[in-house]
Amino acid sequence: MIVLGHYLINSEYLYMVFNFEDIKKTPSNSTVLINFSDGTLLKELSNNKIKTAVKVSNIKEAIFSEALRSKYIIANNLALAIQIQKLAENYLYDSKILVEIEIESDLELIAENKIDGVIYKNAIKNIN
């Protein structure tokens, strides 16, 4: 199970960006985090082979995120993560499915539902 941002575990940070220009402010070779919105930024990131994590709010966004080679797909709730994880297993996604959590007790529930991993807010860095 992937655990990003927990104080006991050394892990990578995700750098929140809102446009392609923001990427210049991130460390080299880092993973950038975006909201899916219309997918235009994700396509540009994919075309430039930039490691990307995408916050999604529905199945369609998850499908496009995988097709555009996202490293992580971050569901905004557990129910959605369960649906996406089933798709990921069926279609052999390369992307890993994560759920953002705030408290450790959520970790067990997510593990029981066989989601690839979790991300704590501590793993997300704002570049502005």
Question: Secondary-structure map with pairings?
Answer:
Layout: E1 2-4, E2 14-16, E3 31-35, H1 40-47, E4 52-56, H2 59-67, E5 72-75, H3 78-91, E6 96-101, H4 105-112, E7 117-120, E8 124-126
Parallel strand pairs: 1-7, 2-3, 2-8, 3-4, 4-5, 5-6, 6-7
How much of the sequence is in beta strands? 25-35%
Topology as H/E string? EEEHEHEHEHEE
- What is the residue-mean pLDDT, rounded to a whole number? 95
Q: Classify the secondary structure makeup into a structural class.
A: alpha/beta
Gist of the model:
With 128 residues, the chain is of the alpha/beta class. It has helices at 40-47, 59-67, 78-91, 105-112; strands spanning 2-4, 14-16, 31-35, 52-56, 72-75, 96-101, 117-120, 124-126. Helix content is 30%, strand content 26%.
Give structural notes:
The chain is built from 4 helices and 8 strands. It is globular and about 40 Å long. The mean pLDDT is 95. Strands 1-7-6-5-4-3-2-8 form an 8-stranded parallel beta sheet, covered by helices on one side. 30% of the residues lie in helices and 26% in strands. The protein is α/β, with parallel strands linked by helices and 128 residues long.
What tags apply to this protein structure?
eight-stranded parallel β-sheet, 30% helix, 128 residues
